[in-house]
Amino acid sequence: MRAPATEAANATETGKTVLSAENISLTFGGLKALRDVSFDVKKGEIRAIIGPNGAGKTSMLNCINGFYHPQEGTITFKGVARRRARPDRIARQGIARTFQNVALFKGMSTLDNIMTGRLTKMHTNFLLQAIYWGPNQREEIAHREVCERIIDFLEIEHIRNTPVGRLPYGLQKRVELARALAMEPDLLLLDEPMAGMNLEEKQDMCRFILDTNHQLGTTIVLIEHDMGVVMDLSDRVAVLDYGNLIADGRPDDVQSDQRVIDAYLGVSHQ
Amino acid sequence: PQKAAAEEDAIFLPLTVYRTGAYAPNGIPFANGSRDFLQMLMARDGGINGVPLEFPECETRYDTAMGVECYERYKDGGAKGAAVFAPLSTGITYAIMELAPDDGIPIHSMGYGRAAASYGKVFDWTFTFPTTYWAQATAFIRYIAQEEGGKEALEGKKIGLIYHNSAYGREPIPTLERLSEDLGFEFVSYAVDHPGQEQSATWLSIRRDRPDWLMMWGWGVMNQVAISEAARTGFPMDRFLGVWWSGSEPDVRPAGPDAAGYKAGNFHSIGTEFGVLQDILEYVYDGDEDAARENNWGEVLYNRGLVNYIYLTEAIRTAMEEYGNVTLGGEEMRWGMENLNITAERIAEIGAEGLFEPIQITCEDHEGRGPVIIQQWDGENWERMTDWIDPMHDVVWPMYEESALAYAEEHGLEVRDCD
Amino acid sequence: MQVLFDFLIGPFFQIFEAPIFFVEVVIGGMAAGIMYALVAIGFAVIFKASGIVNFAQGAMVLFAGLTLVGFLQMGAPLWLALIATVVVMVALAYAVERVVLGPLVNQPLIVLFMATIGLSFVIEGFGELAWGSDVHRLDVGLPRGSFFVGDIMIDRFHLVAAGSAGALVVAIVLFMQYTKFGRALRAVADDHQAALSVGIPLRMIWVITWSIAGVIALVAGVMWGTQAGIQFSLVLIAFKALPVLILGGFNSITGAIVAGLIIGVGETVFEVYWGQMMGGATENWFAYVVAMIFLFFRPQGLFGERIIERV
Amino acid sequence: MSVQREARPDEANTPTVEAEKAPLLSVNSIEVIYDHVILVLKGVSLTVGEGGIVALLGGNGAGKTTTLKAISNLLKAERGEVTKGTIVFDGEQVQDLTPNDLVRRGVIQVMEGRHCFEHLSVEENLLTGAFTRSDGAAEIRADLERVYAYFPRLKDRRDAQAGYTSGGEQQMTAIGRALMSRPRMMLLDEPSMGLAPQLVEEIFDIVRQLNDKEGVSILLAEQNTNMALKFANFGYILENGRVVLDGEASALRDNDDVKEFYLGIGGGERRSFREFKSYRRRKRWLS
Amino acid sequence: MFYREAGQFKTSYAADQAIFPILQDRLFVIAVLAVAYLVIPFISTPYFLVTIMIPSLIFCIAALGLNVLTGYAGQLSLGTGGFMAVGAYATFKMTTMFPELNIVIVFLLSGVFAAAVGVLFGLPSLRIKGFYLAVATLAAQFFLIWLFNRVGWFSNYDPSGTISMPPRDVFGIRVVGSGAAPEVRYLMVLTLVVVFCLLVKNLVRSRMGRTWMAVRDMDIAAEIIGIRLMWAKLSAFAISSYLCGVAGGLYFAVYLRTVETIAFDVVLSFVVLFMIIVGGLGSVLGSILGAFFITAIPVILTRAPHDLGIPISVDMAQHLEVIIFGSLIIFFLIVEPHGLARLWQIAKEKLRRWPFPY
Ligand SMILES: Nc1ncnc2c1ncn2[C@@H]1O[C@H](COP(=O)(O)OP(=O)(O)OP(=O)(O)O)[C@@H](O)[C@H]1O
Ligand SMILES: Nc1ncnc2c1ncn2[C@@H]1O[C@H](COP(=O)(O)OP(=O)(O)OP(=O)(O)O)[C@@H](O)[C@H]1O
Ligand SMILES: [Mg+2]
Ligand SMILES: [Mg+2]
Question: What mean pLDDT is predicted for residues D19-46?
């Protein structure tokens, strides 16, 4: 947990592009959710996407992890271009995400939810699993240890065995983050991770995000409506409005961009 | 009510009935007939030769698993266990046939169940008298031949079978296939799945194929729908023959007058004029005919339930001749059934003259080769229309034997020596 | 080879050779389909308003039929018996809401589904207890018999069935789409809690829905009962309605009738031209297999609302 | 819109005034248990005066939602029940009323997490809000236009299926739907969640306008303490199912603990989110 | 207070992941097994064994199977009866084709056929969900029954299409068919149930189980975290139908001994579904409780008037039974929608807190 922030920040400046989306267009019936949007993510950076409600931010993430298939445009991840790929393949390539409306597995405990993040990394066959003792147990324990580290890291020890459906919203979001982290992704997509949290919790969450970024070197794409958070955390910010990319750049530049103020921030924002 | 006094030494005759569920309309009259007859015996004679009878009912809903439960529940009932089981469903018969020999309880499947069980050398605990589906099928063909003017006239005719797609409905098929080879008529069959409420496709097929005669092995709502559809699509009703389970009042009533002309087989006669029915009226209903009618008195299936227990009580009497007037268990009952010989005189004594024909069971022949009649619905009542028709025993017996021996082989059973 | 020919080509020859008969088969199929649709509509109404697959619909058909027959046998004139039966069905709806649905608000749908199966037992048992297990002949004076159009036989009764099904569908669709209650019904189906929060009285909505379903059950009961008598087996026609329901889309009333026709015609044609070759009795599975294959391409059925999948 | 803010003087309600005129809503030490075993609220009391805006603050799982649901009687559907205490609205005990009765009396809740009717169009969603009204189609039509005036975006999307609209649009739909019932009192559960900053302001402005112009009283559960305290005139802070602090909004804003834990301006200026190097050491009023 | 975990600290993940981490649970299970093996066979009547214990145990396996599919993997299925029929006919065919083959192996193998069929009919689940899927699985139910009815080969060309179980011995002891003692049949089925429960419990707490549950709770999210939906759903279908197949084989060979296809009609599918819902979805314990509950209740209800000496006619009794059975189901769903297993859990929870209410 000691990696100096500045170093990491430098790394992002020089990082190479891990993901690039080119000329993405996505329509639903008559509605154009994304219009010819291009943007890229560099290795190790925290990349924010902001924009008014319904601008297409979530849709963008959905395109990146293959849940939506854009009508036009290509997405290149780690140098491999793709057009249509199933989300599970993309997950295996190293993209994890959290969801705007919590998408936890409601019937399972926190620990099990986090363990699902490890599923792609487990390999014993079902007969061994049915017998349990032996290889399967060893594997379970190995992965359990990884998950416990994440649980520790996110300070959710006390709810380890609680069914997630009963957790308050904020903790659910944290468990979701834990699950995504358990996948040990190269690229982490966070969709409004701090919605519905109070300040204290936001601070925690920011800490977790930063630490993930620094310690694990995970590249992060972040959608957030709290401007304080976005401005403080992100290296670069893309702004969407009605499916158009209206600005893209360093936080300070974006913040003072008149179009962004009009479309998104509103006059009253400092 | 009467049984309390002598429950200790009563002969135990559990009645497996179905008064509820999809087949209840047919199950109720049968159950009433059986019950009333036994009640009448108790009221009139106090039992058989002074030995009382105990006959609790057990509801099966025509369902095999429930039937098995009934069997398990009642097999050890009474003083010496159940004397005999009449499972009243082909499916339950099949199931209990596997169990009863272990428990030493004979089974009587009267006009249903496994036809091959008539072959007593293999199925020593199962009795099918007075007749089976296979025999009925041959009797139908014989009747049709009669109507057409001789066996030769069947050549080139088309005879159809519409059947309930279950063990029961499929029973006659091998026989009919065999006969169609022997006699040169064309055999077509139409399966109807349980429960059989929607038969429009089937009847369109029948309309297309235009069979000269159509037989039916149906049960429950299937009968009613088939008869209505036949009327609706203009099938000549007097060329439509139902097996005895497709020929009772509930089957034709919904179609009402439209069904007039429809025929069905039977192995006993119909009507209320028989002495035994009059006795029931007197002893069970105190002469109140309306109450009796309310309980299906005199209906086809009512009479069948009654006949069933006339056979069985006669078997009890037979056994008593051997074992004395004591409470009988399964073992003794089996002996009584295997040595059953109901003569014409005896039938007259019972007050059932004309209700059914004399019958004799032997070690080898558990069927008794009984004859059948054909009855016809005139729109309001069933009328008996033929004399007793003998099935083609020369055809069916070899088939019983073949099938029974195959079963013995598969189940590693010994074939008895009856000589 | 011969088998293939018989199976793939032969039937078409048959159709070609006897086109009139084919038309009759199609008409027969449509008639059957309408009868299925009558039951399916009842399912669809309840599904639309509560997201519940009401398995008890079959039992309600039986119950409505039995009640009607019961009143008729007690000597009531037809109109009075009909009204009395409707009253009983509304009372049933009310009881169902009180005892079953009310306490199960907001539970997983499968739990509600199971509860309706439990309910179907209760209704069945109660109906038989009250009115007996016999077959009851039902004759409310619907026209019977058939007439010929050219060489084609048409059954008057089927025309009546088609007419009532059509009328039901139109009435219900209008109600659902354009009235406040219709809208509330659909809202309830989407989200019980949200519906409560805007003040939609769930309980009343459910009583209304189940009453409507009860009336539909009565219509279906009269139709089916006229055909084969009122008896226990009516409960089982639910199984004929289910494939119709999924093919049409669970929550579509129009779907129920269109799919009813498709399935009725499909299974009849298949049974007549192909089924006999396969030994018959194909109707029971044919409808399901068709529905299943179709859903593979359109998982929400013909007219079902799109299944919303978002994250 | 921001002009509106000045229109409302900050001195609106003092606690004494609150106490004097009988409050519109008062919740008296209620206890709530879920599933027969999980005790969530351990004696919460609060009051909302006629025309007041009261904020209910607190961290995750503090019991804000539960409190609101207890008031609007939506707990039963979640297998929760109020085991102790009373809830009085407009002088009448309301715990045993149905949600429908409550809506008729003018209490409506905007639920957390939007809860739109997915298969209905946006407009139909709004119309369901008017279910309890019987004052004629024209009035309802007019109110619909009023909602569209508040939320022009909804007008654009009026025919879209609500399930396919974006998070913000759904939130607007949910609030609009509640407005359609002409409430006297709205229970807002985290209305700002997931909304763009501009919209958050707008929504709070709208809330205030409603309060101002139409006299709707408001009980607001919020995480966005900053905003909530700016608009409310009274606040309660919940922790762990208990009210740990209450007071006038202005007083709360000045409270050091509130500053530290809810406003993030403890010890002077707002700090950057990057600067929280070590995890916070929690200080709690209770526990 | 009676039921406490306090003080039972786990020092390794292995201990924490044991099936029954809590001592009391372990003792309880051991006690139940001891009673099942050592007491029941000796004290109960054949009637009790044959009409309650044996079918309940067989249904445990079927319910376990359906619970894997519906409770764990979230795929609602009404094809259970069909899959059980596959197991039954496979058992019959195998044991008549290879009479020498050990019957237990026949049971285990017949599940494999059911699994294959299950996967085939599971294919629609890749596209179809919820009730649509449930109804689509009825296709399996109706088609399979039709097929077995239709094709004489399955019943060795028995004229009525009925199959009956020939007697078979294991180690010289008659375990099925005529002459098999109820105790022997009971013990054999019991052992199979114990083994399958253990295996399934292990499966569901391993990767496979978590995969299923993830798909059940939210298939979209599951896919996005890298789960192959097709694989997950089909594996659930396979394992579920395997268990149903074995149960079907036992249902035929050990319980009824002779069946026609109607024994496997759709009612059976519903019965098994009842078991898992009343017992508890997604719970091994629930499957067991549900199976016993749903099997025993009708028997008890049918007998009640007789045993209590209440003189009512059988049809009246039957109608009342149907009504009571239906009401009981509704009652239990209302009391605890998550089933008997959850009631059991709540009871434990209460015991833990006792004497304090919360
Ligand atoms: N249906 C339920 N069953 C059991 N426990 C519940 C249920 N709903 C909520 N809880 C519990 O009640 C507590 C309070 O929850 P509540 O939703 O009221 O909190 P909140 O203050 O609204 O939090 P948030 O800001 O996250 O919305 C939480 O600990 C939660 O786990
Ligand atoms: N599956 C879909 N079908 C139809 N329309 C959709 C679908 N998904 C998104 N949309 C529409 O696309 C637009 C963009 O939606 P998106 O969810 O990406 O917005 P967003 O930027 O994430 O907004 P918010 O901040 O409110 O979450 C919205 O108008 C939404 O209604
Ligand atoms: Mg979004
Ligand atoms: Mg909340």
Answer: 84
Nearest residue to B66 via CA among E255, E179, E57: E255
Residue C267 and residue B396: Cα distance in Å, rounded?
37
Range of the domain at A167: 102-184
What does the pLDDT read at residue D267?
Answer: 54
CA distance A116 to A216: 20
Chain A within 8 Å of C308 (Cβ-Cβ)? no
Across the strands, what pairs with B57?
B15
Distance from CA of E193 to the nearest CA of C (A): 26
Dihedral sign computed on CA atoms, order C29, C30, C31, C37: positive
Same-domain check for residues A177 and A191: no
Side-chain-side CA neighbours of residue A124 (13 Å): 24
Within this chain, do residues A223 and A242 fall inside the same structural domain, yes or no? yes
Give the predicted TM-score (pTM) of the model: 0.89
| Beta-carbon separation of E260 and B167 below 8 A | yes
Give the residue from A184, A208, A232 where a domain finishes: A184
* Closest-CA residue to D232 (of D213, D247, D215, D243): D247
A137: distance to nearest CA of chain E, Å?
8
Q: Is A201 found in the same domain as A249?
A: yes
Chains B and E touch (3+ CB pairs under 8 A): yes
- Whether residues A180 and A195 fall in one domain: no
Structure letter (DSSP) for residue D52: -
Here the tokens at position C20 are: 């009139």
pLDDT band at B255 (very low <50, low <70, confident <90, very high): confident
Residues 85-104 of C with CB under 8 A from E: 99-100, 103-104
* Tens-digit pLDDT profile for residues C28-68: 899 999 999 999 999 999 888 877 889 899 999 999 999 99
Strands of E87-181 (E only): list them.
163-164, 168-170, 173-176
Mean pLDDT of all residues belonging to chain D? 81
Cα A113 to Cα E16: distance, rounded to the nearest angstrom: 17
3-state secondary structure C91-107: HHHHHHHHHHHHHHCCC
**Chain D contacts of A52, Cβ < 8 Å?**
168, 196, 198-199
Q: Smallest CA–CA separation between A109 and chain D, in Å?
A: 17
Span E246-297, pLDDT tens digits? 999 999 999 988 888 888 988 899 999 989 988 998 899 999 999 999 999 8
Positions in chain A whose pLDDT score sits under 50? 1-13, 268-270
Q: Which of A182, E181, C234 is nearest to B225 (CA)?
A: C234
**Which residues from chain C sit within 8 angstroms of residue B220, using beta carbons?**
233
Say whether both A178 and A193 belong to one domain.
no
Domains parsed from chain D with CATH numbers: 23-254 (3.40.50.300), 255-287 (no CATH)
Please give the distance, rounded to the nearest whole angstrom, from the Cα atom of residue A32 to the centre of ligand 2.
10
* pLDDT tens by residue, B128-139: 989 999 999 999
Bridge partners (DSSP) of residue C287 are none
In a shared domain, residues A157 and A266: no
- The pLDDT assigned to C18 comes to 85
Model ipTM value: 0.87
Backbone angles phi, psi at B107, to 5 degrees: -120, 135
- Which domains are assigned to chain E? 47-352 (1.10.3470)
What is the count of structural domains for chain A? 2
For residues A9 and A61, membership in a common domain is answered with: yes
Q: What CATH number has the domain bearing residue A125?
A: 3.40.50.300
Domain boundary among A184, A209, A244: A184
Residue E357: the pLDDT is: 58
Query: For the residues E25-34, what does the mean pLDDT come to?
Result: 90
Query: Residue B404: what pLDDT?
Result: 93
C187:D120 CB<8 A: yes
Size of interface A-E (CB pairs under 8 A): 106
3-state secondary structure B84-103: CEECCCHHHHHHHHHHHHHH
The answer to whether the Cβ–Cβ distance between B95 and E257 falls below 8 Å is yes
